[in-house]
Amino acid sequence: MSNPDAAKMAGAAPPMDTVSCTINGVQVTVPKGTRLIEAAEQVGIGIPYYCYHPGLSAPAMCRMCLVEVAGAPKLAPACVTEVADGQVVLTESDKAVEARRGTLEFYLVNHPLDCPVCDKSGECKLQDYVHAEGRPRGRSLEAKRVFGQDDFGGDILYDGDRCIMCTRCVRFMREVAQDDRLCVVQRGHRSVIDTFYDHGVEGSPWAGNIVDICPVGALLSKDFLHKARVWDLDGTPSVCPNCSQGCNVRIDTRDNLIQRLRPRANPDVNSYWMCDYGRYRYDWIHRGDTRVAGAPFDVTAAGDIEAPQLRGANGSHEEVAWQAAVLALVERLEAARGHASVTVVGSALHGNEDNGLLMHLAAQLGSVKAVYRSQRAADEVVCPGFPRLARRRDLTPNPQGLEALGFERAGDDEGRGGLAAGNGVLLVLGDALADAPADFGREAALFVVFGRADTAAARNAHFILPVSTFAEAEGTFTNHEGRVQRYWPALEQPARVRPAWQVLGVLLAGLNDEAAPADAASAFLRIAELFDPFAGLSYATIGTRGALLNEPVRLGAGGS
Ligand code: SF4
Ligand code: SF4
Ligand code: FES
After folding, report:
1. Which ligand is in closest contact with the Cα of 171?
2. Which of 141, 186, 316, 336 could join 340 in a cystine, given CB atoms 3.0 to 4.6 angstroms apart?
3. Is the CB of 77 under 6 A from ligand 3?
4. Which of 335, 424, 410, 425 is nearest to 376 (CA)?
């Protein structure tokens, strides 16, 4: 079983020789060793498949990808047949279409009519292919076999009746997780996927991926079970916020609530996979409660404060319009300018744009001490089949970005302690200050919170300015190796909440009589101008796969 894609993902050098063939009359030139199914994809020709997956070996067992190759006596499986010079391939010939139709009919002999209740409905390859080119009605009169459901442990349910025996799940556990917990038992139409031990996949850090790669609804996530029909979901490309690996993900939402996270392919970061630790930790993103299980301690998730607030002479806060808050704050900043000692608390859950403009604002005022706090695990959890991917020690997405901007880590591995408010200017972004004493910041000459958490310490601020979470705004995180990656807004923010880069940009414009950045891309360009490690980068150069900092910085001692 060859797996050139897995080798490619692992960083092997691409072959230099090329070969050319025609597929459905379209000429295509590809590196030697490319398989027909991939060559066809490059010219926009889709060949149906089940068992093939670009990140796994190819057993050529589902027979959905059969194509006609001129001169060959039999149809060829496109998932394992390598392109040869001068080859003439037909994917839509009568023979190829009839073969697929027959294969689909065989699958449907035993597949239940579960689409109305199946979680995979709407993104199921069996449903799609049968709809596209299956027979209009089944000819089988025999009763279907019945296996029922099996709890595979952890988050995974197995519905044997729906399984089409592509073995992707078995190969994933063997080749990527390298934890042989699944196997095929029995033969022929009695074949079924089973676990070796009672605990099944329980405790495997990578098992959630088998639900993604199951082409039908045979493997189900208990977390997502009957939660939403997939056509009701809005998918937004983003970056996992649960560690500094920065796995590329898609945030699926419905009714402005996150329903699930799924990996997006990026060969430089996470291949096609993500870990279960990151996959199932999304509740905290849209909850204000900093005590949600699994929430990072300095959570910036939606809090109770949703409008700008100004502290009055009697110590209580009142809501004000943004314009009034900004004008009043610019006046106070002007007064402090040049002779203040400034303490800045950044947030590794906020993007480079937010933290960079915060740092820039602080630098306008006086001498700066800039810190951030971040939870850290004891160990990394490396993916054995793709070692570039690991659940990193840092359990926030942007500590590397903060280090590149000049912030220093403070506090312990729980993300607690390490803060000193001082009596100068105190600027806090996104840190809930949940562990800070109730009088934290009372001595500060000017205390500004850019955040939404309603904690005792935050209530000491002269200004509380509610800002968007990463899930509500556009921006970038810098991952553990210095790769800057973009995220996009997946959730709608409350009406009077604004992105931090916008608020800070307007404050800087007020202070310096300059134009405020009109969008996140312009805010990033400002960062690229101001901070050397980001020089030369822009949203265009970052694209959808990220770009490395020009001069990657190293994390402080113990960083990973
Ligand atoms: S459970 Fe899904 S991935 Fe596993 S063999 Fe069956 S159809 Fe394939
Ligand atoms: S490895 Fe890190 S970034 Fe990737 S899914 Fe897991 S927690 Fe998220
Ligand atoms: S995809 Fe080629 S045989 Fe399954």
Report:
1. 1
2. 336
3. yes
4. 410
| Arithmetic mean of pLDDT, 409-433 | 93
With a 6 A CB cut-off, is 391 part of the ligand 2 pocket? yes
The pLDDT, as a whole number, for residue 291 is: 46
Residue nearest atom 1 in ligand 2 by C-alpha distance = 391
The beta strand positions in 12-143, using DSSP E, are 18-23, 26-31, 66-69, 76-77, 87-90
**pTM (predicted TM-score):** 0.92
pLDDT of 293 reads 46
Domains parsed from the chain with CATH numbers: 4-102 (3.10.20.740), 115-125+146-286 (3.30.70.20), 309-548 (3.40.50.740)
Query: For residue 441, what are the contacts with CB-CB under 8 A and spacing of at least 6?
Result: 421, 426, 428, 447, 457, 460, 461
Is 240's C-beta closer than 6 angstroms to any atom of ligand 2?
Answer: yes
Residues 6+ positions from 248 with CB-CB distance below 8 Å:
237, 238, 239, 240, 263, 264, 265, 266, 269, 270, 485, 545
3-state secondary structure 500-517: HHHHHHHHHHHHHCCCCC
Instruction: Quote the pLDDT of residue 263.
Output: 98
Atom of ligand 3 nearest to the CA of 166: 4
Q: Where are the beta strands (DSSP E) in 387-478?
A: 390-391, 408-409, 425-429, 446-450, 463-465, 475-478
Mutate to test the pocket of ligand 3, among 5, 38, 61, 165 (most ligand atoms within 8 A of CB): 61
Burial of 322 per CB tally in 10 Å (0-12, 13-18, 19+):
middle
Q: By mean pLDDT, which of 179-188, 233-242, 348-357, 544-553 is the weakest? A: 544-553
Residue that has been written with the tokens 């065989």 in this structure: 106
Average of per-residue pLDDT across 353-369: 96
Nearest alpha carbon to residue 297 among 456, 435, 169: 435
- What are the backbone angles phi and psi of residue 341, rounded to the nearest 5°? -95, 130
Kindly report the protein residue whose alpha carbon is nearest to atom 8 of ligand 1: 166
**What pLDDT score does 284 carry?**
84
For 166, counting Cβ atoms within 10 Å of its Cβ (0-12 exposed, 13-18 middle, 19+ buried), the class is buried
What element of type H or E holds 150? strand 149-153
Compute the distance between CA of residue 149 and CA of residue 171 in angstroms, rounded to an integer: 21
Name the more confident of 258 and 199: 258
Q: Which residue lies with its CA nearest to atom 2 of ligand 1?
A: 214
Nearest atom, ligand 2, residue 274 CA: 5
Ligand 1 pocket mutation, candidates 216, 220, 221, 272, criterion most atoms within 8 A of CB: 216
Residues 6 or more apart from 44 whose CB is under 8 A from it? none
Asked whether 502 lines ligand 2 (CB < 6 A), one says no
Mean pLDDT of 444-456: 93
